[in-house]
Amino acid sequence: MQSVIRIGSRESRLAVKQAEIIKDQIRRCDQTILVEIITMKTTGDKIDLAVHSLKDMPMEESSEFPILAYSRREDPRDVLIYKSEKKEQGTEEGSILTKTGAVIGTSSKRRMIQIQKLYPNAVFQGIRGNIQTRLSKLNKEEYDAAVLAAAGVKRLNMEAVIGRYFSVDEVIPAAGQGILAVQGRKEFLKDTVWRQYVDDKKSRVQALAERSFIRVLDGGCTSPSAAYAKVKGNELELTGLYYNEKSGQYFVKKAASYIEDASSLGERLALTMKKQFGER
């Protein structure tokens, strides 16, 4: 067994925190393994693993550096964060966004099309960067609120800034949202004890179903399509969102099957929705 594992990470606080989560899990499984986090400053070093938010990963995986494990899922919901000055003024939660022309910061079309139904008077403006950058832009620029993934905010212990949680029915999450994907050298696919420890079986079946749905629709991590799977005993209930580019409308449909059938469940639901709601 390899005694030193090097995890590559970007330098942002969230990226390092996510790498630390996996590092701690590997160490809990086997304290004889030395785990190092290598930031982008030292990319000359060879890395063994990389940790990513699964929602941001391409649908096609690398055969040389495959996904080895899926972490236990953090909160999959999207959240709304209000401009701090308006929160301090004691404005009733959400009322800021009922006014015509209220600006919600998000660069995600998936979020825009769903939140537009909740706040029909609002307009959307792109906002990019890591969590700290987005919060800074929210408070310094012409935004009234911004939308972020709950998982990242919670991993940084910043729940206090959250103004509203959208339920998974109000805003269907991106495929894999809240799950960390551990990529690594293909040699680790062998019977590695720490990999089995880190890999969450519930997250794995959710990820397989959600990502197969998006893959069939030719969507990527920027696709407005969305999917969220719930595990209920030995069954999996998948909710899919299909967006018709031509009409600008989106449609939601559910399907269920046994957890062993996760990938094909996603494929079947995607094909059904594409046939029923697709462009003609």
Summarize the structure in words.
The chain is α/β, with parallel strands linked by helices. It contains eight helices and 13 strands. It has helices at residues 13-29, 84-88, 109-118, 131-140, 150-155, 193-198, 201-216, 262-277, and strands at 4-9, 34-39, 49-53, 67-70, 78-82, 103-105, 123-125, 145-149, 164-165, 180-184, 226-232, 235-244, 249-258. The protein has a five-stranded mixed beta sheet. The longest helix has 17 residues, at 13-29. The radius of gyration is 20 Å and the shape is globular.
Helix/sheet category? alpha/beta
Question: Termini separation (Å)?
Answer: 55 Å
Low-pLDDT runs: none
Largest sheet descriptor: 5 strands, mixed
Report the average pLDDT across residues. Answer: 91
Quick gist of this model?
With 280 residues, the protein is an alpha/beta fold. It has eight helices and 13 strands. Helix 7 runs parallel beside helix 8.
Write the layout of secondary structure elements.
Blueprint lengths: L3 E6 L3 H17 L4 E6 L9 E5 L13 E4 L7 E5 L1 H5 L14 E3 L3 H10 L4 E3 L5 H10 L4 E5 H6 L8 E2 L14 E5 L8 H6 L2 H16 L9 E7 L2 E10 L4 E10 L3 H16 L3
Parallel strand pairs: 1-2, 1-3, 6-7, 6-8
Antiparallel strand pairs: 3-10, 4-10, 5-8, 5-9, 11-12, 12-13
Helix pairs in contact: 7-8
Short key terms for the protein model shown above:
about 280 residues; alpha/beta; five-stranded mixed β-sheet; 8 helices
